[in-house]
Design a protein that fits this description.
Strand 4 and strand 5 form a beta hairpin. Strands 6-7-9-10-11-12-13-14-1-2-3-4-5-8 form a 14-stranded antiparallel β-sheet. The N and C termini lie far apart (59 Å). The chain contains 1 helix and 14 strands, in the order αββββββββββββββ.
Length: 274
């Protein structure tokens, strides 16, 4: 029993590293690779032009954003690769729009998450990392569930120019069940963004002139293990590209924590903005 806290600390470190790659950059494990030969967007990439479709919900001025079109029914499908998990696919859909926010449903092959967003005069902010639970990770011996609250800052400011900097923070509380033992965890994640430049980027959905943004993600977790507080800090870097009127089109991430190195890449396969 004397070595059990060290054993648990090692498991926590590994799981947090995997969770950061799979949750915070939008990814997740998937077993089936789905290719899209015909993108869901219109020929010019601006979205569907079917005149018989119902008009999209009107978006308040608060939610208008050059790099994230907030339109009810808008969908973006992605394909990702990761050194920590199998390749995966997922689709983001804006399922409802309100005056002060909107809801995004994220669908993986075998998992659905719901993410709430807030709209402010300064920009829009993700209130959760990717669903009611920020992340759920299960192995044969470990089940980790963490909830997010107290979101602050901005995810997409109203005005992004090369050289712009901004940040966002999410607090976490949760539990980890390890071989029948429950461990309480808490902490936060801090996102520090820097806009670099407009750059041409080609993905499966097409070629876009996109804003290149670097983000440093720092995860601070405190675990209560047998009456002792065990702090864990994990950092990763992500470069993402956001196209005006389209949104997020590509991300490349890398991390190294306690000797556990990982990388992840995601790109837009198709999109439809009504």
């Amino acid at each position: 029993m004397k070595n059990k806290p060290i054993y648990l600390f090692g498991i926590i470190s590994l799981l947090l590293a995997m969770m950061a790659c799979s949750v915070f950059s939008g990814g997740g494990g998937g077993e089936e690779i789905v290719s899209t030969d015909e993108p869901a967007s219109s020929e010019d990439g601006s979205g569907s032009n079917d005149p018989t479709e119902e008009p999209p919900a009107v978006v308040s001025n608060l939610c208008e954003n050059e790099y994230y079109p907030v339109v009810e029914g808008g969908t973006w499908s992605y394909y990702g690769t990761s050194s920590a998990t199998e390749d995966y696919t997922f689709t983001n859909t804006i399922t409802s729009v309100r005056d002060d926010g909107f809801t995004v449903t994220v669908e993986f092959d075998n998992l659905t998450l719901v993410q709430e967003w807030a709209c402010t005069p300064e920009g829009i902010l993700a209130l959760t990392a990717g669903g009611g639970p920020a992340g759920t990770l299960t192995t044969s011996d470990v089940n980790l569930v963490m909830d997010t609250q107290n979101a602050s800052g901005l995810t997409y400011p109203k005005n992004i120019q090369p050289g712009s900097t901004w940040d966002a923070t999410l607090d976490y509380t949760g539990t980890m069940d390890i071989a029948g033992q429950t461990v309480n965890v808490s902490g936060n994640t801090v996102y520090n963004y820097t806009a670099i430049e407009i750059e041409s980027v080609t993905v499966q959905a097409g070629t876009f002139d996109a804003m290149k943004v670097d983000v440093v993600i720092t995860i601070n977790i405190i675990s209560d293990i047998q009456g002792s507080s065990v702090p864990v800090t994990f950092s990763s870097t992500t470069t993402s590209w956001f196209a005006p009127g389209v949104g997020w089109v590509k991300s490349d991430s890398s991390s190294d924590f306690g000797g556990f190195s990982s990388s992840e890449a995601s790109e837009l396969v198709s999109y439809n903005i009504p």
